[in-house]
Specification:
The protein is α/β, with parallel strands linked by helices. 36% of the residues lie in helices and 21% in strands. The strands form two sheets. The protein has a nine-stranded mixed β-sheet. A six-stranded parallel β-sheet has the order 3-2-1-4-5-6, sandwiched between helices. Helix 3 packs across helix 10 and helix 5 runs parallel beside helix 6. The longest helix is centred in the last third of the chain and has 20 residues. It is globular, with a radius of gyration of 20 Å.
């Protein structure tokens, strides 16, 4: 693993309409799809890429047509498994050649966090749309550069916010927009788990850019925004570290943070790599409440409001995400909650402010 990470790092340096969900949940009832298909190359063939690739097999609007990896053995096995042509397989040195490949429309970047920025710049320069896993980059400065690079290239930048398309989540967002909860007063976001393998890249500051906040805490940051319906304007934060051997300098173990919103709502959130059973969103308004528990796991997501349980059928999040992203890129569809580069950049602005507040002990303004 260490050699592979060094290899990758070295080479990369230089609704959401319900009919869609129904068809995905019951594919046998759906009529054959004859519309445009997004041709996607997956970059970084690790664990999450495996989940994405498997989910894409149920997608009608998006198809795997290319592969990018620094491991030849993976390229070979994935090529066979997903029926990808040899001429559409690349490594981290030569993937700029996708510029001349009409069988690739977009590249989904699934590599460690530190690689997102340089790889996205190269994909944009090659004239392809960029789909990037979250966090989009290590900080807001890098995120802004990615947005500008894609804009200059005339290509779109999307971020892998799969929860923006999840049916129970979307239901609550729509109810909030419709005023079912009244004036929003409070949000609570709990995001955490006890991390395992101590040698994984997520505990490497250079590759991850931080610790729990960059990996799991971003769900509460982003969730606060789409649940409240506003972008926060201030933050306070407190960091707790009980195991400095595992969580070295610059790798956060646990951060509690509080945010304030323009409309007067406040949020209380927790991000951790050292506690399990934390995956809950709670939204409180003058007229009612909404809860998601679990709120951001791979599913099924469970939701309820003051009016009762939500019972939307579970569909693999990555399947729905890729269907919707294909519609965004090919049909100019406008999602209920954005998944574009600006959305990803805003989360990075907030995370930068959270780290600053944790270090200063002060209430820090959030400037977009």
């Amino acid at each position: 693993m260490t050699n592979r990470r060094q290899f990758i790092s070295k080479l990369t340096a230089p609704f959401l309409a319900m009919p869609v969900l129904s068809e995905l949940a019951f594919p046998s009832c759906a009529s054959p799809y004859e519309g445009p298909v997004l041709k996607v190359a997956l970059m970084g063939l690790g664990g999450y890429a495996t989940r994405v690739a498997e989910a894409m097999q149920a997608s009608k609007k998006a198809r795997i047509t290319g592969l990018i990896s620094g491991t030849p053995e993976k390229l070979k096995s994935w090529q066979q498994k997903y029926n990808v042509s040899t001429k559409n397989c690349y490594n981290y040195e030569n993937f700029d050649a996708i510029k001349n490949n009409p069988e690739i429309d977009a590249v989904y970047i699934l590599t460690p966090n530190a690689l997102h920025h340089p790889q996205a710049l190269r994909v944009a320069a090659a004239g392809k749309h960029v789909i990037c896993e979250k966090p989009m980059a290590l900080n807001a400065r890098q995120g802004k550069e990615m947005v500008e690079a894609c804009k200059k290239a005339g290509k779109q930048l999307l971020v892998g916010y799969r929860m923006h398309f999840e049916a129970n989540t979307v239901d609550i967002i729509q109810q909030r927009i419709n005023g079912n909860f009244g004036k929003i007063l409070f949000f609570q976001g709990l995001s955490g788990f006890r991390i395992g393998n101590p040698s994984q890249w997520r505990l490497n500051k250079e590759l991850a850019g931080g610790g729990a906040m960059m990996d799991i805490g971003i769900y509460s940051v982003n969730g606060a925004r789409y649940m409240v319906g506003e972008d926060p304007i201030w933050v306070t934060a407190q960091e707790t570290k009980t195991n400095p051997t595992l969580f070295k300098e610059g790798v956060d173990e646990t951060i509690q943070f509080q945010m304030g919103f323009p409309g007067g709502a406040v949020a209380s959130c927790l991000s951790t790599y050292n506690m399990n059973n934390l995956d809950r969103f709670f939204l409180n308004g003058e007229k009612g409440f909404a809860e998601l528990y679990p709120a951001s796991g791979y599913g099924p997501i469970k939701g309820r409001t003051h009016q009762g349980e939500l019972n939307h059928p579970h569909v693999a999040h990555q399947t729905t995400q890729m269907e919707e992203m294909a519609a965004i890129l090919l049909e100019n569809k406008k999602p209920l909650v954005p998944v574009d580069g600006l959305e990803g950049w805003k989360d990075l602005v907030i995370i930068d402010a959270i780290y600053k507040a944790a270090a200063s002990g002060q209430k820090e303004p959030i400037r977009y």
